[in-house]
Give the backbone structure.
Amino acid sequence: MICLRCNAENSEEAKFCKNCGMDMSYTPPTKNDTLKQSVLFLLIVLGWHYAMFILWEAINFYVRKLTTSGGNNTEVLTIYKVANWFGTGSTVILMLILAIISKNNSLRIALIIFILIRIALNFSYLLTS
Ligand SMILES: [Zn+2]
């Protein structure tokens, strides 16, 4: 068995490389594994955005009922503020975790750009409201 790190010849049953100590059971991730992981991560991000979209619609529905039954504006603003922070916070944390554990550099860069846009949008929303 050839060591993947230092190319030293080791016996077939060796657990670690006798030259550098590399774990001999280690198999490097293939391109296919990385691709599968990237697709999964993108689906998770997309799914989460849809879940947040549905949540947002549900909140709008609830707020409409609240305002027609004479609910006050501060209550509505608080609901929107909490929903906004929850939506942005959870989405940013999710994308950050996926960016850190992703094996695909392009996906990592894309996720970091999405995170920055999301944070910028949230701050512009805060400044205008
Ligand atoms: Zn080695």
Q: What stands out?
A: The chain has one domain: 31-128.
